[in-house]
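Subject: Sanity check before I submit

Could someone independently write out the structure tokens for this chain? I want to compare against mine line by line before I put it in a report. The sequence has 252 residues.
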Amino acid sequence: MSQPLAPGSLAGKRVLVTGSSRGIGADTVRYLAEAGADVVINFRNKAPRAEKLAAEVRELGVRALVIGADLTDADSVGTMYAEVEREFGGLDILVLNASGGMESGMGEDYALLLNRDAQVGALQRALPLLGAGSRVVFVTSHQAHFIRTTPTMPEYEPVALSKRAGEDALRELIPDLTERGIEFVVVSGDMIEGTITATLLERANPGAIASRRESAGKLYNVGEFAAEIARAAVDPIPEDNTRLVGDTSDFV
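---
Independent answer below. Compare away.
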């Protein structure tokens, strides 16, 4: 896919993308680095993939930090930001991309812990690094963003509810962010083909992706959605702080 941002448009900017060793997060890092940004690649347990991505973007002439951190662990998050401050001095863009809740073997409250509590914690702990003119991007799905008015698949409902709770909690921080000169935008997309979530949903509910694709007319792939996230990091903030990606006609 072609670069969504002008070359050099982010030169000198410092960006952290959570959950960026693979998938949407990794492609978002690529686009931002191609635009000249120095990047922090965060991972939980995919260190080799993160290091490979870092080596790739360093060839573009930008700096890349690889930092393992579990967002549900406050000490781990604190250590991550301490390293960012030591190496980069601060951040200009924070992309809250990491999410989950469909993994096997996790506690009953894991989805809420990761998709709400950890998101708020990651932002609050980042505030000392985010100066006036910086931006925070929160990544979610239509199935979560509209869950209060439009039902989703039963298999995804706990995740959708927890991500909406996270979005609501982050939106409550907008007045404080605005006072600090920090911009905030939510990027919501339909089901994204090629993601782990889509794969798990298809496994639990065969035909779900094809059905949604037929209803929507088109589903974005990983690279296409990552390009929208990259654009959201620089485009003017919509009045309602929300950037909707893809068809929303089936959502209320």
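---
OP: Matches mine. For the report I'm noting this point. The longest helix spans residues 110-126.
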